[in-house]
Amino acid sequence: MRIFDCDMSYGIGTTALLREVATVDDVLAEMDHCGIDQALVWHRDAWERDFSAGNARLGELAEHARLHPTKVFVPTCCQDMVSADEFMAQLRNEGVRAVRAFPSKNSYLLDRVSCGDLLEAFIAHSIPLLVPLAELGWERIYALMKDFPKLRLIVTQIGIWGHDRYFRPLMKTYPGFCVSTSRMEIGGEVKSVVDRLGPEHIVFGSGLPQHYPGSFVMMLARADISDAARDAITHGNLERMLGEVTW
Amino acid sequence: MNYRERLLKGEHCPIIDMHGHLGPFHAFFMPEAAPDAMVRGMDRCGMEHLVFSPHSALCGDIREGNAEMFDVVKRYPGRLYGYCTINPSFPQFIDGEMEKYLEQAGVVGIKIHPAMHACAVTDDRYTSTWQRAQAEKRLVLSHTWGAGGGCGTSDMIKIAEKYPDVRLILGHSCYGDWDHVLPFAAEFPNVYLDLTAVYHFYGLIERMCEKVGSHKILFGTDYPWFDPMVTAGCIVYAHIGEDDMGNILYNNGRRLLDEQLNK
Fold this sequence. Notes:
The complex is a heterodimer of chains A (about 250) and B (about 260).
Chain A: E1 4-10, H1 24-34, E2 38-43, H2 45-48, H3 51-56, E3 67-69, E4 71-72, H4 84-94, E5 99-100, H5 112-125, E6 129-132, H6 138-147, E7 153-156, H7 164-173, E8 177-180, H8 189-197, E9 202-203, H9 213-221, H10 227-243
Parallel strand pairs in A: 1-2, 2-3, 4-5, 5-6, 6-7, 7-8, 8-9
Helix pairs in contact in A: 4-5
Chain B: H1 3-9, E1 15-20, H2 35-45, E2 47-52, H3 55-59, H4 62-75, E3 80-85, H5 91-101, E4 107-112, H6 127-136, E5 139-145, H7 153-162, E6 167-175, H8 178-187, E7 191-194, H9 204-211, E8 217-218, H10 228-237, H11 242-261
Parallel strand pairs in B: 1-2, 2-3, 3-4, 4-5, 5-6, 6-7, 7-8
């Protein structure tokens, strides 16, 4: 399987993890261990310290073609964030083709009032936005997609407690809505979603260093789905989305 | 071929799951919840045995739930094994249910869920269950969570001290209380860690092997809640030895099951 992981992070944070992924080399070592080819990567500073501190660390990825940076944004209302136009220029100049948001952690609402300028720009350039479920919640995700139906949204870290009744209506309604595999792990869940809605709305995401990336490698290797569906989930969907980014 | 390669290729790699359930559950949709679907899922994953307690026993009338458990055990002899569920909210049923099922073929232990049933493991209503399990060296799977609160590490230590012959499985390994539960499991020979719902914590399996030993770690998934291949993936991609993987995937469950089946 060729695997493109949409959700890997690294760095030392506030509290010690059971197994740290402190450096870029640690990320690469775990990718090699699990047979993961490429990854969208962010630095833990962006979540625990400050979004700009995390973004500033992404230059560390520059010499590794397998690692693709994702920048974190906040609303443009304060002096700590550049304008939407300037942010898009940064993305283009730095080769960044996906962005992340942590609205709960960073204390804002990811909606038209707070982030309309940025969200419209992401849609205009087909830039995928990745948000962990805990940072937004399903009610706000529903409102966001209703207001921005062309948004390409990947909800990561959906947790284990069976969210199908939340995410399947979104998959059915919005072509650009996806969830990552972390932690979409109800017994037979992937097959069930693929059977009903196709594989287009699932992308591989491990959540390293919170979770074992190999768990989702094995889940997909042994899922009772077609090879075409498996390829779409493990790499095809994400490669397609990133390939559709326009400047 | 190592465990990882065998599992990736779908080669024979037997697994014993010591923590399963059965049937639909109110909170969410589970595609493989029905007995036949579960067994097909077990076939898909190369799972040799699953030991389960149905949701109907945990969330409803335990008499109906235990009857469903035994019916399914009889439908899949030697493949599915059952726990007799005890609910202390209805103490009048406890001794009767144990008497009815614990000597039956295919029933290998007792399941308790102190959180769901709002009753601490040390409560008097559990006493007859612990006493019987102690006298007969029974397998008991208890839901455990955190440091205290009725089924946390501090509560389970009291049970292990008082009933040392119970084969005590800490369901979910006292989720999150790693600094205390690992020394506890290491100290008591009949206390076992269960990977259900905790397998995903990156680095935890390595920590368990280091601090407790792989001979005390059981494969568990809450199946049909969680896909067994996710748990298996955590194990075979963990940074542990092949012997450790074999112990967790199969050997430890085999040893515990054989002890109960050969009574």
